[in-house]
Backbone:
């Protein structure tokens, strides 16, 4: 009988725990809401370097949208192409009390071309979803991960991008093999905490709390010179099968020269085709017209 009672007690605890509110708006301090239209409750950003030719970018963010001025934060859009793939995309919406009201489904996600309107061809695409709700305030918790088939560059990290969005908690970290330690440049940001990981890896960590951004001013300096940020760049990397280094301008220039090597020369087959096409041309203008139309 005692075992049966314990079983029902555990079940009750589990069920009650599952219904506990998450991110209730009542828990946001008043000073974080003053002069803002949204509050980031918690945000985790992680750059993970696996090798010279692969890395990943992970983001988990819960943002409370206080009014319609912040409705654009309810629209999720993540780009991808042949060198970037989306490994993970999840989202949950909570009402003002912290009760779950919507979970992102596969059918909610649009997969569209990101054609820019002027490129001849483009492989760029995006997955997007609209998570907006009719009643304010509400909170969106989104989680996604992008896999990169290169280590040429890393996404920028800015402490904030909007002067009317405050942040309660933010963690930014970089995981990397010790032999591929990246370079970084800090602007109005303290040096990171270092952590040793297993299998010859290390981790840089920056933590921030209770961030209320200063108001942006017209004609102020560029974003990277006015907002605290971390700029990250690899030393050794590989892009599209071309390895290189960028710790000096000379090394980076040598890599670019390697990319262009031989690309200014037409293959013999193409030369013969040009000769055939322009055999009857009577002037330079005729040759240009024929080749242009071809």
Residues:
């Amino acid at each position: 009988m005692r075992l049966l009672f314990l079983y029902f007690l555990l079940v009750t605890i589990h069920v009650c725990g599952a219904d506990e509110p998450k991110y209730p708006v009542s828990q946001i301090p008043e000073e974080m809401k003053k002069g803002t239209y949204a509050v980031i409750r918690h945000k985790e950003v992680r750059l993970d370097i696996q090798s010279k030719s692969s890395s990943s970018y992970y983001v988990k963010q819960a943002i409370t949208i206080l009014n319609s001025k912040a409705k654009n934060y309810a629209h999720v859009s993540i780009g991808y192409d042949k060198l970037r793939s989306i490994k993970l995309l999840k989202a949950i919406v909570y009402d003002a009390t912290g009760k779950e009201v919507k979970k992102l489904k596969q059918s909610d996600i649009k997969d569209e071309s990101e054609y820019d309107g002027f490129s001849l061809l483009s492989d760029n695409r995006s997955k997007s979803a609209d998570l907006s709700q009719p009643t304010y305030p509400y909170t969106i918790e989104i989680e996604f991960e992008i896999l990169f088939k290169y280590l040429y560059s890393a996404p920028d990290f800015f402490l904030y991008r909007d002067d009317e969005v405050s942040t309660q908690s933010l963690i930014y970290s970089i995981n990397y093999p010790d032999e591929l330690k990246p370079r970084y440049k800090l602007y109005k940001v303290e040096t990171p905490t270092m952590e040793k990981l297993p299998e010859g890896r290390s981790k840089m960590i920056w933590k921030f709390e209770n961030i209320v951004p200063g108001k942006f001013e017209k004609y102020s300096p560029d974003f990277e010179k006015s907002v605290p940020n971390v700029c990250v760049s690899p030393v050794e990397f590989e892009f599209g099968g071309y390895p290189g280094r960028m710790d000096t301008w000379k090394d980076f220039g040598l890599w670019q020269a390697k990319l262009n090597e031989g690309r200014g020369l037409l293959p013999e087959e193409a030369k013969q085709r040009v000769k055939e096409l322009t055999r009857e041309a009577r002037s330079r203008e005729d040759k240009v017209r024929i080749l242009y139309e071809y």
